[in-house]
Amino acid sequence: MDFDTIAAISTPMGEGAIAIVRLSGNEAINIVDKVFKSPSQKKLRDVPTHTIHYGNIIDPESGQVVEEVMVSVMRAPKTFTREDVVEINCHGGLVTVNRVLQLVLTNGARLAEPGEFTKRAFLNGRIDLSQAEAVMDLIRAKTDRAMNMALGQMEGRLSKLIKRLRQEILETLAHVEVNIDYPEYDDVEEMTHQMLVEKAQYVRKEIEKLLQTSQQGKILREGLSTVIIGRPNVGKSSLLNSLVHENKAIVTDIPGTTRDVIEEYVNVRGVPLRLVDTAGIRETEDIVERIGVERSRQVLKEADLILLVLNYNEQLSKEDEQLLEAVKGMDYIVIVNKTDLPQKINLEQVKKLAKDRPIITTSLKEEKGIDDLEEAISSLFFEGNVQSGDLTYVSNTRHISLLTQAKKAIEDALDGIKQGVPIDIVQIDLTRSWELLGEIIGDAVHESLIDQLFSQFCLGK
Ligand code: GDP
Ligand code: ZN
Q: Which InterPro entries match (predicted)?
């Protein structure tokens, strides 16, 4: 495909001191040649591909030096977009970077739309749709683990699995075809039925597995909504502060996130915690007394993780027991705080009430036990499931919806077989699941859907 040459500022992850002006398209190298001067006077059109060159960006009209730069030249097709790509690495501030961008724009490039680089990669067949979406997730990824997940998807794990499932369905459909073409052979029909059921069940199971990972994927991207509860003075605010101070707070400059709810993001060993409505927690110190057990249950029900704080220096009170009762069946960790003071709490009693939940003792005042708490949070979340790098994670709302629909179509097919409906009706359901899975990797999408997806990307990606 032939496109015009686009350009945009593409700041690398982590907001380093370097900003990149990226160009993609047939004219990318020629355009940069108009504004770039290397000390050796060498032209970029003569340099080998995938090389980096030092020089200056010069305004061709005034002859003025705008910026000292390193320019990477990458020729098609081994580039992200499969087009010629030039990256101008600037280390000056935003103002000079903008001037460099302006210069390439006045010399023949067009300003890229948000996500247009990735869109080209998709349209040029470099990546499929789920990989493109993974790039979008990558841009938004808030923690290392979320980033690895996005990377894994980008490598095409999900695509590979989806392709395999589609292949299974396709083969099954081919067998069904045989049955429709030769209905007089009874044994073919017999075989087809049995194979249909087996294949459909297998595909359903694989889709279910993928869907099971989706909850974790969502949490990794959005943060584990976490509520700290406990009676007044047990150390809730202290706990919040040490979690925020011990761990790098996660920057939340993601477009579209609500700003009205006060949330603190912290990254605890790769688990993103969204400490929900922390201001609210400060005000509702006495969550049970103030809003009653029933209402507080409601608040707690919406949390993914509850940190229940008790006082080591006091006997377990009625309210403590009520709190322990209220969080039954939820994911919670008991924190027995103030171990620097004499023990008055009966830990055996706590153990009995907290069943098999982790109980961590801390002295937040002396900064003790915080490591144990972090360990507990991380193992609660990662034990046995997310940590293994082989799993394929589904983290995208659109994927989840399509997988759910595909699963439904498979189930319809299975029901149909059970009820003995004509096999060509079953075939329709199977075809539908095949199409739905195809939409995940972009095999059957409409232009408008593509545009909508890519418009969500940040500029310059
Ligand atoms: P909250 O009311 O549950 O939010 O409790 P705070 O975090 O405000 O703490 C109540 C009081 O307990 C403050 O004076 C803290 O300094 C103190 N405190 C918190 N953690 C500890 C601890 O581990 N040991 C001791 N001795 N005091 C603590
Ligand atoms: Zn407090």
A: G_TrmE, GTP-bd, GTP-bd_TrmE_N, GTPase_MnmE, MnmE_dom2, MnmE_helical, P-loop_NTPase, Small_GTP-bd
Top mutation candidate among 229, 234, 238, 339 for ligand 1, by most atoms within 8 Å of CB: 238
pLDDT score, position 331: 84
ipTM of the complex: 0.98
- Compute, in angstroms, the gap from residue 219 CA to the centroid of ligand 2: 26
The rounded distance, in Å, linking the Cα atoms of 17 and 205 is 48
84 annotated as ligand-binding? no
Q: CATH assignment of 223-382, given 1.10.150.120, 3.30.70.2570, 3.30.465.10, 3.40.50.300?
A: 3.40.50.300
Ligand 2 centre from 246 Cα, in Å? 18
Q: What is the pLDDT of residue 172?
A: 80
The answer, yes or no, to whether the previous bond of 39 is cis (omega within 30 of 0) is: no
Confidence of residue 232 (pLDDT cuts 50, 70, 90): confident
Closest atom of ligand 1 relative to the 240 alpha carbon: 7
pLDDT in the model for residue 255: 32
Strands 305-311 and 224-230, sheet pairing: parallel
Question: Can you point out the beta strands (E) in 92-134?
Answer: 110-111
